[in-house]
Design goal:
Layout: E1 4-15, E2 26-42, E3 48-51, E4 54-57, H1 66-78, E5 86-92, H2 102-118, H3 124-139, H4 145-149, E6 156-159, E7 162-165, E8 172-178, H5 185-198, H6 200-223, H7 226-242, H8 248-259, E9 264-268, E10 275-280, H9 283-295, E11 300-306
Parallel strand pairs: 3-5
Antiparallel strand pairs: 1-2, 2-5, 2-6, 3-4, 6-7, 8-10, 8-11, 9-10
Helix pairs in contact: 1-2, 1-3, 2-3, 5-6, 6-7, 8-9
The structure holds (R)-mevalonate (MEV).
The site of (R)-mevalonate (MEV) has 15 residues, from helix 4 and helix 5.
Pathway: Isoprenoid biosynthesis; isopentenyl diphosphate biosynthesis via mevalonate pathway; isopentenyl diphosphate from (R)-mevalonate: step 1/3
GO biological process, one term: isopentenyl diphosphate biosynthetic process, mevalonate pathway
Protein name: Mevalonate kinase
Amino acid sequence: APVATGTAHAKAILIGEHAVVYGHPAIALPLIPLRTIARLRTVPGPLSARHGDQRVRVEDLPEAFAPVGVAVTAALAHFGLPGDDLEIELDSDIPPGAGLGASAASAHAIVEAVRVHAGQDLDEEARFELVQTAERVAHGNPSGLDARATRARTPVAFTGGVTSDLHLGGSFSFAVADTGVRSPTRDAVAGVRRFVEAEPDRGSELLERLAELTRAAGRDLGAGRTADLGARLDAAQEALDALGVGHPAIDRLLAAARAAGATGAKLTGAGRGGCVIAVADSPERAAEIVTAMQDAGAVGGWVVTAAGR
Ligand code: MEV
């Protein structure tokens, strides 16, 4: 039986990804139904992780799982606990490498399981830093947006490493779907960096454009304007395409979403595959858009709603 468990949820970036890495604002939504559970067990031997049917010492985890080892090791060190005779196991509904924050959610779940095991409190900033330690191994240079949004219970605005609650002037419905194409966040972020270095004027113009669209989207959310919000997403997709993070599989799902009545749609997360997000004028329409995207090849789809408070 586990000695401690921790959970966290997925997130979808509504707008502002990539530009956020350069200090611009972004808006993200929690995807609470998609969860990761971390279970910590006592098993004699060195600190290990359950990997498939195997028990692997955390130092020997394959590269893709290295952040798991980093999260558990950093969290144990934070509480001054030895790692011997412990095993960590993850159970996740969140598709990895799809831009839904799977790695940040895993790190949060692990940190929480270790905190419960330690029987101590952990303030929000220390928690964030532990998750960021794992995210640096997963992504290279994470903005911190995923680490914040996978803890948030409501839509958040993110600027300069800090989140603030967002005022919503009505209910919003979104359709999120997975292209099934996997692309490491690290590579997409590095690709944008190369673009911005090679073409600084065009690069900063596109990043500024994304920042402006994100601020406008925040105002649309505040005023309950679904159609305008959709138009911002469409425009953001054009800027993201120009930065080189588009993909034909993304375009196929966006076309299906728009044909099914989305007011606008774009990629969500790092792009070059991964997931897309569309704005709908009702939860029923969002469900239809999910179905349309699945008919167009999406391997997973979710309706996300967010209501004003
Ligand atoms: C990835 O979910 C979001 C990016 O903006 C990278 C980051 O914020 O670290 C592409």
